[in-house]
Amino acid sequence: MAARYKFSSHENFSHDDIDSFGYDWERNANRDIAPKYPLKVYLPRTTEDVVEVMREARRLGQELKIRSKGHSSNDLVLTERGAVLCTQKMDRILELNEQELSVTVQAGAITSELDKYLIARGYGLPVIGDHHDITAGGFASVGGFNPASLRYGIFIDNVLRIEAVTWEGEVVRCSKAENREQFYRFIAGTGQYGMITELTCKIIRVRKTRDLVRNDQTNYRSLDEYLAATTRFIEDSGDAVMQRLVWFDFGRFLKMGQLSAYKPTPRTFVHVLRDWAVYKYLHTLGYWAGRLPKALDVAVKNVAILHVMFPPKYSTIKHVETLTDRVLESSVGDPTRMLAVIAPVDQYEPMFRGMYKLLRDYRKQYKCFSFLTLYVKALKSEYLEGLSPGKRFCEVMMYLGVRPEGMTNEVMERLVSELDDLCIQHGAFRYMHTKTVKDPERRHKIDPNAVYNREVVPSRELEGAGR
Q1: How far apart are CA 289 and CA 141, in angstroms?
Q2: Does 48 fall in a domain?
């Protein structure tokens, strides 16, 4: 087993072997899903290689999908008879500019490895995914959220410049200030217009593995109280620098809300010791998940879930960023499904209630869910506020335990369709790397990238890069 899997326990399969080309993130939700293998795989190392690939695919008339680690479940990276361009070999860090406070990387650079490089030099990415295998290009292609998004926005708010290659094989260099139209085609574009090949991203001076935050946690048994408290927090998060807002529903007897506001705290010996001891224990749980006999695996996962519900009081910034990835193992117990919504803050409560009711109704009618969790993030995002000037947005991510016997493909399609209708009704958007409807007209209404490209004729509908 590769050494890096000691650092991540999000799922117990590789993203890097030949077999992985037949799957995307939906494998977590449906372990019996049939693979879709491409007939051809490209492994470019430079922008010039990508230009050659694009032109060859166009000349041959072949379907071409772009993938990094396949961390999507919306038919973005799979093709059964076509070709795949894999960004795995485009993983170089090109420049660290300490004066500008920026770093330039190729699209296939893994953000966790990039952050490790920056941490060693006293810097860090403002926003990074909680998963070990997310790449910079993939994250920029979908948006990118994390617990620090209440302060630093989403990942694409921190992208200064990009280089991209269109489906026609033309190289484009752009930023928010120069060639702005092209910039907003590719950012959060899920590969509709081609491939991002290089990115220049903001960095911040921070000591993620040393600076401590204190978890001021409040728990709620009443949904009404939870929604009132989280609404206030989304509107004004005060001096919190990170967040974890979750509603847990494990069935009839256990429902609770968690509001964790992480605030800077002095680095004392006692606080450091508590952080070290607790996370040593938690990461040991995460390491053994998926490596034990089934009954023990499930028991370990249940203990880990309790620690996610009641996270440690003192943590380093890095430990908060990677809590769920290094503690929970998605391949143990019920398969899991992610669906995510970007909601206007003024529609947060009705959207939350509508989504929660929809999930409970499906659980009751189809016996398709074992547990329901809804993660909420307050967002301070220039990109999202550009969707509707004067409005702020928040994310609601549904992390769901699936009972395979009840969750048929037909039930899943119906659920997603009703969820997308709910978004259209409330002026919300979908996080497009999670499953949505396929109808182009309806999809256009829930895709935030479409708002920035109303005057652009789509060149290829959702043909591209997932995370």
Answers
A1: 31
A2: yes
Task: Please check whether residue 64 lies inside any domain of the structure.
Answer: yes
393 φ/ψ angles, rounded to the nearest 5 degrees: -130, 160
Which of 406, 377, 376, 446 has its CA nearest to residue 150? Answer: 377
The DSSP annotation for 215-280 comes to EEEEEES-HHHHHHHHHHHHH--TT-SEEEEEEEE-STT-EEEEEEEEEE----HHHHHHHHHHHH
Q: Which residue has the tokens 């911040």?
A: 204
- State the average pLDDT for the chain: 91
- State the Cα–Cα distance between residues 91 and 68, nearest whole angstrom: 10
Q: Is the pLDDT of residue 181 over 80?
A: yes
d(CA 11, CA 30): 13
Q: Which among 251, 228, 254 has a CA at the least distance from the CA of 376?
A: 228
pLDDT band, residue 457 (cuts 50/70/90): very low
Q: How many distinct structural domains can be found in the chain?
A: 1
Model pLDDT, residue 14: 67
Percent composition of the chain: helix, strand, coil (DSSP 3-state, to 5): 35, 25, 40
Other CB atoms within a 10 A radius of the CB of residue 59 amount to 9
The rounded distance, in Å, linking the Cα atoms of 117 and 125 is 10
pLDDT above 90 for 355:
yes
Which residues lie across from 248 on neighbouring strands?
Answer: 256, 373
pLDDT the model gives residue 303: 92
Condensed to tens digits (0 to 9), the pLDDT of residues 95-154 reads 999 999 999 999 999 999 999 999 999 999 999 988 888 999 999 999 999 999 999 999
Amino acid 318: pLDDT: 96
Q: Distance between CA 14 and CA 331 in Å, rounded? A: 12
Residue 49 lies in a domain: yes
Is residue 411 included in any domain, yes or no?
no
User: How far, in Å, CA of 110 to CA of 87, rounded?
Assistant: 10
**pLDDT attached to residue 2:** 31
Q: Which amino acid is at 195?
A: M
Q: What is the dihedral of CA 454, 77, 434, 88, to 10 degrees?
A: -100
What CATH number does residue 13 fall under? 3.30.43.10
Q: Residue 9's domain spans which residues?
A: 3-86
Q: Which long-range contacts (CB under 8 A, 24 or more apart) does 15-18 make?
A: 15/69, 15/70, 15/71, 15/133, 16/69, 16/88
Q: Are strands 40-42 and 83-86 parallel, antiparallel or unpaired?
A: parallel
Q: Per-residue pLDDT tens for 252-277?
A: 889 999 999 999 999 999 999 999 99
